[in-house]
């Protein structure tokens, strides 16, 4: 049976639905930087804390010992280096001729002259005296030559020593420079070691990185793990065990009961998790067929499984570009929304949700306040064309139309028909061209 209605003007809104999860503005898992024991806990689950507030202290003698050793090594590396003293000059003792040698020579020449003086022949006597004078002169010359030889030797030796001293000094200077460079590199490493060890010791005092709410130990694995656990719980015992083994181990992290004063901890253990709930968000998974319609600022509404009968406002703040495969095999994209206040049907205020809660969001991707509108049942898809059957002079007339916003019951027509015209709104898929219509 064919039913006909008139094209009207009406508001049309196109809404896309997607599953979502409530999230927090920020979450930080605070871990211990070294092994030790929990010396003191200052907070409990659910406590509100402020940025910089001390949450826990860890006692770690090992970390303190490492800092002490690093400081000792740095102190040793800061001591000046030297290549050591090297003697670079030689002093030869002066040549000393014994005084007895000169006296003995003088006595010898005196006796020789006395003996020559007793010779009667004057000519011979004169020859003897000349020979003695020549010998004495030669002795004096030899004595002076010996002194000059000794002085020359001293000068030569000191010249050689001076040359060697210059070479040794150059070598020592290069050695000292090399040792200084090595010391600078060593000092740089020891300073880094001291800073790293001090950061570790400072990190033993765990402080809140921002205002938030405390959870002792690691945060829960979130909605994804909860959903997996629920699915496994619905399987038979043997299949659930196999599926759990295939899924792998759950994320590590100490439970709240494992965090207490005096409990031993290992480096990397989560002691406290701080969650900033001052601004709540929604993480939605929008199907690939709809995500191109979603933009920053797109308005939305959210309904939470935990708050029946309440509706929360939301606004899109970001659209991701990394796809992921959904549970049914389709592809979806992450969309982030800012979550606003919620109200019940009677307009009373709804409670603030908690991170991890499940929700369904309805994003208003297109809307027209005064659109040319027809019922959705009037639209027929024919190949790549979208058509409606208009009624003209009692006959069916095929019209190709362009759609705008597509609501659940009403569709916006951008071109093809005009307000006031009549179209087939029921049984449109059975109508043929020029068919007589009532």
UniProtKB/TrEMBL annotation:
Pfam families xref list: YknX_C
Annotated region (Disordered), positions in chain: 60-87
Domain YknX-like C-terminal permuted SH3-like stretches: 372-432
A GO molecular function held by the record: efflux transmembrane transporter activity
Name assigned to this protein: YknX-like C-terminal permuted SH3-like domain-containing protein
InterPro entries tied to this protein: Single_hybrid_motif (IPR011053), YknX-like_C (IPR058637)
One GO cellular component, as annotated: efflux pump complex
Organism: Planotetraspora thailandica
Biased composition (Basic and acidic residues): 68-77
